C-alpha cells in the first residue's frame, strides 16, 4: 500500500470516530438539566416565562435532544459552530481569538521539553550506569510525578514572588512582544516538564539500544571519532522512536494546557474550556472537544507518517 | 505367552527405586509450583530493589497516616479511635476559641501553618490522603478489571467483535483524558463517587488495549489450541489459560497509573471541579491558595499552604512510580522502559 493511500484511509476512518465523539459529548452534556439560560434567568429574575422561552428558542435550546443535535450538526456542516451564549458571540471567532495563545504555550512547552530531553537523553545513554545516568533517572521520575499545577504554583512562588525575575501575572501585551515571550517561559517549563521526562527516557533507552548494534562497532573499528559515531550515526536512528512518542504526547500537552492556563491565568483555549464547563456552554464544549479530537487524531497520523519516512523498512499494508 | 503380545515391556526400570530415591532429589510433585514460583520470585526480586521498597514504605506510611488521621465511625460505632491529626480538617480554629489567625506560619503548634480560613494545614494534609489514596486505588482496581475483561474478549474472539470493540476504544482515545473527566464531572456534579466514575470512564480503555495486545500474542500458543481441542469452553480458555499469562503487564500498568489517577483527581480539585470547595482534598486545597499566591495577601507570602498539600501529592505519586518500576523489573514484563509511566494525564 502506498503511503498516500494509507493516509487517505486513515483520514477517512477518523470521520466515524469524530461523529461518535460528537454524539457522545452532546448526549453527555444534555443529560443533566441546567443551561446558560437558567443562569441568565437566575441573575435577572424579572425575565418572564414567555421571554425565557423566546431566548431558548433563539439559541435552539427548545425541542428534544435529538432535534437539537440534528440542528447543531447541520449548522456545523455549514461552518456554523454555534454561539457562546454568555457573551453572545459566535464560537468560531471566540476560539480563533484564543487558539494562538494555546498554540504558543504548547510550542514553548514542546521546545523546552526537546531542549532538555534530547541532550540529557544522549548523555545518559552514552554514560550508562554512571552517576550522571542515575541523576537523569531521578530527574525523569520527579518530572513525571510532579503535578503540573503544583509545579506552576511553585515556579510562581520562587521565581516571580521571591526572586522577582518574572511578573506574577501575564503582562497585557500582544502575544509576540518580548515581554510576553519572556513571561511564557514559566508556563512553558510547567507544561513541558512531564513531556521532557518521558521523552528523555525514551531517548535514553532507544539510544542505548542502538549503541549495542553492530554498525556502531563497525563505525568505531573504521576509526571514526566517538563524537561522529554518536551524533551522526546513532542519533539519527534513535530519533525515530522519539519522534513518534513526541507526536503521541500532543494529547498530553493539550490536557496540560487546561490546567496550566488556569494556574497562570493564560487566556487560551484550555481556560475557555473550563469556563465553558462551569457555564454549560454546550456549543463551546462541543467545538473545543471536537477540535482537540481532530488535533489528537492528526498528531497520531503524523506520527505514523513520520515513522514511515524516517524508517524506510516500515511498510503499511 | 500369547497374552504378552503387543505389550510394551520396559526393562531396566524399577519403579520402587524411583520412589526410594525421591526424598534425596529436589524434585517434588507440586504441580502449581511453576506459577507460584513466578510470583514468589518476583516478590524476592522486588524486596531486593531498594528504591522500590522505599516507595512501598512511604506509601504504606501515608496510607496509615490517612487512616489514623481522625477517628472513623461506622453507623455510630467508633471503629478507629485514634487521631493523629490534632484538629478536625474542617475546623476553623478561631471559631473554636483558639488564639489562631489566618495564614499563620509553621510553628510547633501548627507544623504546616494555617490556611486562609485559619484551619490547621497539617491536619488537612493528613486527612486529605483519605480522598486521593482511596480514589486512586478504587479507580485502578475497577478500571483494570473492566479493561481485563473487555480486552480479553476482544482479543480472544477477534473478527468483527474485535473490530467493533476497538472502535469504541478509539472513541475514548480521541479525548484527552482530563477533558472527558471534566465533562463527566460537570454532568454528574462534584463529589467523591462522581470523581471515581469519571476516572473509571477514562481509565479502562488503556488496560483494554494493553490486554488485547497480550491476548493476541498468548492465544497463538499450543496450549490454548490444546485446551480448545480438549473441549474447554471459551470462558474457561480465556480466564484459565490465556489471561494468567497476559496479566503481568496489566499489574505493572496498574501500579504505574495509580499516580496518574491521583494527579488527575487533584487537577480536577484544583480546577474547582473535584470535591466541594473547602474539602481537605489535596488539589482542592491548592485551588483555594492559588488566588492568595497570585494576588499576594500583603506582607509575607504564605508559601506553606502551597508547598505542603502539593508536596504530599508529589511524594505519593513519586513513591507509587518507584513501586511500579520495581514491579516492572521484578516481573520483567516490559522490555522497553519508561514508556507508560504514571504521571500527567
UniProtKB/TrEMBL annotation, chain A:
The keyword Transmembrane helix applies. It is found in: Cell membrane. It comes from the Archaea. One of its GO terms (molecular function) is dipeptide transmembrane transporter activity. Its main location: membrane. GO terms for cellular component: plasma membrane. Gene3D superfamilies: MetI-like (1.10.3720.10). The chain crosses the membrane at residues 7-31, 103-126, 138-162, 182-203, 239-264, 284-310. Residues 99-303 form the ABC transmembrane type-1 domain. InterPro entries: BPD_transp_1_N (IPR045621), MetI-like (IPR000515), MetI-like_sf (IPR035906). The keyword Cytoplasm does not apply. Pfam families: BPD_transp_1, BPD_transp_1_N. Keywords: Cell membrane, Membrane, Transmembrane, Transmembrane helix, Transport. It is a multi-pass membrane protein. Belongs to the binding-protein-dependent transport system permease family. This is ABC transporter permease. It comes from Haloarcula salina.
Automatic annotation (TrEMBL), chain B:
Its main location: membrane. The chain crosses the membrane at residues 54-72, 131-156, 168-189, 195-211, 242-275, 301-323. InterPro entries: BP-dependent_transpt_permease, MetI-like, MetI-like_sf, OppC_N. This is ABC transporter permease. Pfam families: BPD_transp_1 (PF00528), OppC_N (PF12911). It is a multi-pass membrane protein. It comes from the Archaea. Residues 129-324 form the ABC transmembrane type-1 domain. GO terms for cellular component: plasma membrane. Belongs to the binding-protein-dependent transport system permease family. PROSITE patterns: ABC_TM1 (PS50928). The keyword Glycoprotein does not apply. It comes from Haloarcula salina. It is found in: Cell membrane. Keywords: Cell membrane, Membrane, Transmembrane, Transmembrane helix, Transport. GO terms for biological process: transmembrane transport.
Amino acid at each position: 500500500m502506498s503511503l498516500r493511500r494509507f493516509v487517505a484511509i486513515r483520514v477517512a476512518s477518523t470521520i466515524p470516530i469524530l461523529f461518535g465523539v460528537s454524539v457522545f459529548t452532546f448526549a453527555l452534556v444534555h443529560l443533566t438539566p441546567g443551561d446558560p439560560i437558567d443562569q441568565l434567568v437566575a441573575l435577572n429574575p424579572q425575565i418572564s416565562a414567555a421571554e425565557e422561552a423566546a431566548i431558548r428558542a433563539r439559541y435552539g435550546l427548545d425541542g428534544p435532544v435529538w432535534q437539537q443535535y440534528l440542528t447543531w450538526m447541520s449548522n456545523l456542516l455549514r461552518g456554523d459552530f454555534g454561539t457562546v451564549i454568555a457573551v453572545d458571540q459566535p464560537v468560531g471567532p471566540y476560539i480563533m481569538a484564543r487558539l494562538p495563545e494555546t498554540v504558543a504555550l504548547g510550542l514553548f512547552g514542546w521546545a523546552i521539553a526537546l531542549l532538555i530531553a534530547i541532550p540529557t537523553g544522549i548523555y545518559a545513554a552514552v554514560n550508562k550506569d554512571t552517576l550522571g545516568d542515575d541523576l537523569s533517572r531521578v530527574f525523569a521520575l520527579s518530572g513525571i510525578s510532579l503535578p503540573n499545577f503544583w509545579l506552576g504554583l511553585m515556579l510562581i512562588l520562587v521565581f516571580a514572588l521571591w526572586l522577582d525575575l518574572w511578573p506574577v501575572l501575564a503582562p497585557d501585551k500582544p502575544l509576540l512582544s518580548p515581554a510576553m515571550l519572556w513571561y511564557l517561559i514559566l508556563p512553558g517549563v510547567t507544561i513541558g516538564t512531564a513531556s521532557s521526562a518521558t521523552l528523555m527516557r525514551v531517548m535514553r533507552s532507544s539510544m542505548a539500544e542502538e549503541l549495542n548494534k553492530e554498525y556502531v562497532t563497525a563505525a568505531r573499528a573504521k576509526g571514526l571519532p566517538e563524537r561522529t559515531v554518536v551524533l551522526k550515526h546513532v542519533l539519527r536512528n534513535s530519533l525515530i522512536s522519539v519522534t513518534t512518542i513526541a507526536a503521541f504526547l500532543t494529547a498530553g500537552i493539550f490536557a496540560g494546557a487546561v490546567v496550566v492556563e488556569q494556574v497562570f491565568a493564560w487566556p487560551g483555549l484550555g481556560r475557555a474550556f473550563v469556563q465553558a464547563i462551569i457555564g454549560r456552554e454546550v456549543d463551546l464544549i462541543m467545538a473545543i472537544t471536537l477540535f482537540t479530537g481532530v488535533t489528537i487524531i492528526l498528531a497520531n497520523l503524523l506520527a505514523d507518517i513520520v515513522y514511515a519516512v524516517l524508517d524506510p523498512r516500515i511498510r503499511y499494508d | 505367552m500369547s497374552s504378552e503380545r503387543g505389550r510394551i515391556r520396559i526393562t531396566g526400570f524399577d519403579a520402587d527405586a524411583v520412589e526410594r530415591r525421591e526424598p534425596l532429589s529436589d524434585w517434588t510433585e507440586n504441580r502449581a509450583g511453576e506459577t507460584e514460583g513466578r510470583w514468589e520470585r518476583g516478590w524476592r526480586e522486588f524486596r531486593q530493589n531498594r528504591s522500590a521498597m522505599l516507595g512501598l514504605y512511604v506509601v504504606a506510611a501515608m496510607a496509615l497516616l490517612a487512616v489514623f488521621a481522625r477517628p472513623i465511625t461506622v453507623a455510630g460505632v467508633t471503629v478507629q479511635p485514634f487521631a493523629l491529626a490534632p484538629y478536625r480538617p474542617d475546623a476553623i480554629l478561631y471559631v473554636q476559641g483558639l488564639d489562631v489567625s489566618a495564614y499563620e506560619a509553621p510553628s510547633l503548634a501548627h507544623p504546616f501553618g494555617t490556611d486562609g480560613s485559619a484551619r490547621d494545614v497539617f491536619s488537612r494534609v493528613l486527612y486529605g490522603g483519605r480522598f486521593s489514596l482511596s480514589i486512586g486505588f478504587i479507580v485502578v482496581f475497577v478500571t483494570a478489571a473492566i479493561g481485563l475483561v473487555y480486552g480479553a474478549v476482544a482479543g480472544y474472539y477477534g473478527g468483527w467483535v474485535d473490530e467493533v470493540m476497538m472502535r469504541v476504544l478509539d472513541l475514548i482515545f480521541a479525548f484527552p483524558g482530563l477533558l472527558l473527566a471534566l465533562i463527566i464531572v460537570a454532568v454528574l456534579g462534584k463529589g467523591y463517587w462522581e470523581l471515581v466514575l469519571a476516572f473509571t470512564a477514562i481509565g479502562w480503555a488503556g488496560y483494554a488495549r494493553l490486554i488485547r495486545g497480550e491476548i493476541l500474542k498468548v492465544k497463538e500458543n499450543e496450549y490454548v489450541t490444546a485446551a480448545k481441542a480438549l473441549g474447554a469452553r471459551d470462558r474457561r480458555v480465556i480466564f484459565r489459560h490465556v489471561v494468567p499469562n497476559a496479566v503481568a503487564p496489566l499489574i505493572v500498568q496498574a501500579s504505574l497509573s495509580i499516580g496518574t489517577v491521583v494527579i488527575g483527581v487533584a487537577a480536577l480539585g484544583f480546577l474547582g471541579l473535584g470535591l466541594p470547595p473547602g474539602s481537605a482534598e489535596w488539589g482542592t486545597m491548592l485551588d483555594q491558595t492559588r488566588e492568595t499566591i497570585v494576588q499576594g495577601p500583603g506582607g509575607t507570602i504564605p508559601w506553606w499552604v502551597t508547598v505542603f498539600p502539593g508536596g504530599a501529592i508529589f511524594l505519593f505519586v513519586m513513591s507509587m512510580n518507584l513501586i511500579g518500576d520495581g514491579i516492572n523489573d521484578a516481573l520483567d514484563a516490559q522490555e522497553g522502559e519508561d514508556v507508560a509511566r504514571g504521571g500527567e494525564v
